[in-house]
Amino acid sequence: MKKMRAALVAALAAGVLFASAPRSDAQLDNGVLKVDISGLSGAINLASFGGSDFYNPGTPVSWFGFQRGTDVSSTANNANDLFGGVGTPVVVSSAGGALGSVSVLGSYSGGGASSILFHRVYTIDAVSAVLHITTTLTHVGLDPVLLRYFDSHDPDQGIDQGNGFGTFNDVYADGSETVGESIEDGGLFVQFRTPTAGGGIIASGGPFSLFGGFDVNGFFASPVDGGGSFEDAGMHIGFEHLFTLGSSITVSYDQVFGFGPPPNVVPEPGTYAMLAGMGVSGLLFLRRRRK
Q: Which of 4, 115, 186, 250 could form a disulfide with 141 if both were Cys (CB 3.0 to 4.6 A apart)?
C-alpha cells in the first residue's frame, strides 16, 4: 500500500496526472459481456449484454464522482469527461488484453486543501457477465476530509429490446450483500452488488442521476428503494469515509448482468432452455427477489 501511495504521489507531483489522457477507449470483452471504458473520463462508456446497450440509449447517465461532505459547491463528476476545477484529467491504461484489467488514475481536491488520489480498476470474469469495480482512495492533503464517492447510472436496456425506457427498480438484501436491481419488461437486468458490511449505499428507482450536489446529498441522506416500481429511473451506489492525513481505503462493488423473469411473471420452461443455449443460464441464480 505504501509503495502504491508513493507512486501515486510522485505521479501527481511530476504532473503525470495532468497529462493528456489517451483518446481511445479501453475494452474488456469475454464474449458474453463487453465493456468499454472511456479514454477521456475513465467511466463506463458502453456495457453491452444480451443484445442491449445498457447506459447509452436516451440521455446517457454513466459516471462516477466525488463530494466533500455535504458541500454542494465541491461536487465533481466526470459526466463531461473531466472534473473541471476540482479534479485533474484522468490517465486510463489497460493490461492483459480483453480479459485483463483497465486502470484509471486521477485526483480530486474539491472544497479545500485536501486532495484525494484515486485508483479505479475494472475487471470482468472469464465466462460470466460480472464487472468488478475496485477503487483505492488515498488522502494526500493537509486537512481531514469527509469524502463522498459515488457511481451514477440510468439503465435503459429495454430500448434495444423494443420495451422502452422503463425498468422495475428494487433494493434488497441477498445473504451478506446489498443488491440494487433494474430489470426491463422482457427480463434483461443489471444489479449493483456490494457486501453489506462494506458500508456501500445503493439506490434503485431514483433520482434520475447524481449530477449536482443536492442530488448527491439527497441520495446519501435517503437512498431510494423503488420497491419494484416501474419507471425510467436511475441506479446509484456510494461510499462515505472520513480521511485523515495519509489514510487510504479500498472499496468495491460488482455490476451483474443477466436474464430473469420480471416481477410477478413465471417464465415458460422454454425460456430457460433458450437461456441455457445462450450460455447465460448460470446467471439466473443471481436474481433473488425480496420476499
A: 115
Cell of 188: 434483461
- Does 286 map to a domain? no
The answer on pLDDT for 203 being more than 60 is yes
The H or E element that residue 20 is part of is: none
Question: How much is the pLDDT for 270?
Answer: 53
Distances (CA, A) of 211 to 151, 191, 215, 232: 10, 21, 6, 16
Q: What is the rounded radius of gyration, in angstroms, for the C-alpha atoms of the chain?
A: 19
How many residues are recorded in the chain? 291
**Residue 6, amino acid:** A
User: Cell numbers of 135, please?
Assistant: 477503487
User: Would you say residue 290 lies in a domain?
Assistant: no
Distance CA 120, CA 137 (A): 9
Range of the domain at 40: 2-275
As beta bridge partners, residue 141 has none
Q: How far apart are CA 216 and CA 255, in angstroms?
A: 20
Cα angle for residues 165, 43, 22 (degrees, 5° grid): 135
Does 280 reside within a domain?
no
Higher pLDDT, 215 or 113: 215
Percent with pLDDT over 70 in the chain: 76
Please report which helix (H) or strand (E) contains residue 172, including its range. strand 167-174
Number of domains in the chain: 1
CB-count burial class (<10 Å; 0-12, 13-18, 19+) for 176: exposed
The CATH number of whichever domain residue 158 belongs to comes to: 2.70.98.40
The answer to whether 170 and 193 are in contact (CB under 8 A) is: no
pLDDT tens track for 235-285: 999 999 999 888 999 999 999 999 987 554 444 555 445 545 544 444 544
The residue with cell 426491463 is: 184
